[in-house]
Write a structure and sequence with these properties.
heterodimer; A: mainly alpha; two-stranded antiparallel sheet; 6 helices; B: 0% strand
Chain lengths: 203, 92
Amino acid sequence: MNSAAVPAPDAVPDERVYKHGRVPGNTGIWVGIFCVLVEFLLLFGVYFIAKAHHREAFLTGPDKLATVAGVTITLLLLTSGYCMVKAVETIRADRRRATFGWVVAAILLGIGYPLVKFFEIRWNVAHGIDGEAGIFYTTYYYLTLNHLVHVSWGLMGLLWVAARTAMGMYSSKDYSGLEAAAVYWHTTDVIWLVIFPFFYVLR
Amino acid sequence: MGHAEKIWLTLVGLTAAGAWLAETGHSSWLLAFVVAGLIAFKGRMVIDHYMEMTSANTRIRRVLHLFATLVPVLVLLSHGWSDVLRRLTTIN
């Protein structure tokens, strides 16, 4: 979505335009997003420290994980995020049916994440990779399951937004709730784009 | 093809490149640099284009850009100076 798709400042509610520019969604969601970013920065710190103390475990650890699961989750999240971009784009044009369709598509793709995770963990456990398999896998479960919790919150937000969209509660004049859910959803994307290489690519 | 579609395709392509790298299984400065670059570039794409930060509040934009810059830098620092990090985080 390019900047041209963003309505002029006078077309959005006054409370969302501040001295330093437009606030996508609402200010409340950004408090939550900044808390999530700080939380994951701390968790990444745990990863870096564990890696510094256990080089060998982090060198061989990724070999036993199913890369296909990590790649599938990445593609599901990126595509789901794309659907939310289209949802915001279509509500700006007051195409509410299309918006509903894009939000539902985002939810369906997003639900694929916990499903893939379920099968990935089953596969892991069958191959002896549980929480006690070593420091690399403990850190892997710690970060990925934490991320899954945040994705679950995002999915609940998207379900709420889908229901409100179906009830016709968003329009080109007022879609801050939908946009707030979208930016939170994209934040889970950004964090996964860090977690994926940490456990499946980096040695 | 619209702008959002181009961004999505680029992100998918870079993910495929990451998957290919995962299969090489080597630990090197090159891999660390490539991974740090992928995190920074993909992160900025989602932040700037999906989250529309190019036209958003400058303070919010700066925080998100800082996140997408800081993490790759930490990846490189932890790769090259893991001994220092280990020493700093060892309780005697």
